[in-house]
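User: We ran a pulldown and think these components assemble together. Before we commit to crystallization trials, I'd like a predicted model of the whole complex to look at. Sequences follow.
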Amino acid sequence: MELTFDLGRRVLEQQPFSRLLGAELTRLDADGAELQLALRPDLLQQNGFAHGGVVCYLADNALTYAGGLALGAAVVTSEFKINYVRPAIGSRAIARAAVVHAGKRQAVCRCDVLVQDAGSEKLVATALGTIALAGTKND
Amino acid sequence: MELTFDLGRRVLEQQPFSRLLGAELTRLDADGAELQLALRPDLLQQNGFAHGGVVCYLADNALTYAGGLALGAAVVTSEFKINYVRPAIGSRAIARAAVVHAGKRQAVCRCDVLVQDAGSEKLVATALGTIALAGTKND
Amino acid sequence: MELTFDLGRRVLEQQPFSRLLGAELTRLDADGAELQLALRPDLLQQNGFAHGGVVCYLADNALTYAGGLALGAAVVTSEFKINYVRPAIGSRAIARAAVVHAGKRQAVCRCDVLVQDAGSEKLVATALGTIALAGTKND
Amino acid sequence: MELTFDLGRRVLEQQPFSRLLGAELTRLDADGAELQLALRPDLLQQNGFAHGGVVCYLADNALTYAGGLALGAAVVTSEFKINYVRPAIGSRAIARAAVVHAGKRQAVCRCDVLVQDAGSEKLVATALGTIALAGTKND
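Assistant: Here's a predicted model for the assembly, 556 residues in total across the polymer chains.
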């Protein structure tokens, strides 16, 4: 099934963990996927930055959406790598992912995670990973 | 400051995101670090598995604890890579991390994430990453 | 086709690049794969260490052999990550790879690369990656 | 010491392994680094494609050059991840790397590897990694 913006939002709404974190799908088009979430106090670590787990959640999920654009709605993240480049200090985190290369069963995607603060955006992490059609990843 | 089990538990308690997820530090000794969390319904994705974001949170955090054993308490995850190998279906997730190699400012660590169900454990993901002394990662 | 030690050696012999580097398959059994090569002067970089390209060649190829044990002889490396932990100074480099998890079409494998010098072995790099059946990776 | 194009070419010339493979630094400027090599028969694997080890050598080295632009000439690759997306079939391989984020001691860089054939270019791999000042990586 083709992954449209509407379907993408419904899928996100069906993920209890994404609801817990308050993630929102803010864009899904030919150029890729964008997820955002407000950096509420309970998403932080002990120094007041967004927890790495929040940042990697966003990267993982945005990569999956980007892969879904190429492969269809039923996809999973097979693997990814993330480099944290700055403490995630800000009011909002934004993940932007795009397809680098897609085959029939797998797509390689990349993702940048940024934080927004006082109107400016700063890169906090960058990721690269493989998205696979569900049911084929480990067959 | 040396990272002891007691200090490790206090640090985890000071991470709002770790409290939100209900993570618990269950071991921290010369052999490495172990984190656990109960897979409550709000940690799942749309198919009833633990969300990838929960699994990568656990891997990220367990890697950091393992690195802290070698480098001291003030450490951050610099980067890591994770391979998901099975849907995370179970009542409990467990991340076990250990140091592969440590220098003065960085440690390379690996981590396995398992789920426990009906008494048995299954590997669901494996990760490899770099932990750095806080304040040195991107200096 | 099942990947046996003999077949593995013939495949390596058919790789012109592996012959150029002088790589040798020294073990291939249920526990995994081992490749070795002598660190000739023309495999070094400007400081006299084995070039990173030699180390990642070894890791890549050993991961592929380990994946082949699980999936059969016709496999390719889909992706991998490598952490260099020490300068590769020694007379011989050894890569030891094993399967972490195997499905029907993909296997996640890990690999350590060591150098031998004056009788002792030291870890110089560690890698983690995905091996796929040839023809399926990017279908 | 600042890494200039001329210095970069001299460093490559001092790497015996880069000479063995015939790599050439074809660009090094504010936008990043480009390395090229002719895909001679002895750089191939058993199916006539460039060996993965050649592709990851190029990625590794181009990442290092890109990092050197930000950090100075004395740098090493700390870690990287590579996704192979297509068989590397062509007459020439080209790696193009750029800095994603640079601190004082480390830079996160990305790299695409392409093959040229009959005038067109195709992406064969993409990589993401960390470059560190020499002497600091594993301190």
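The mean pLDDT of chain A is 95. That may be worth checking against your pulldown data before setting up trials.

User: Thanks, that helps.
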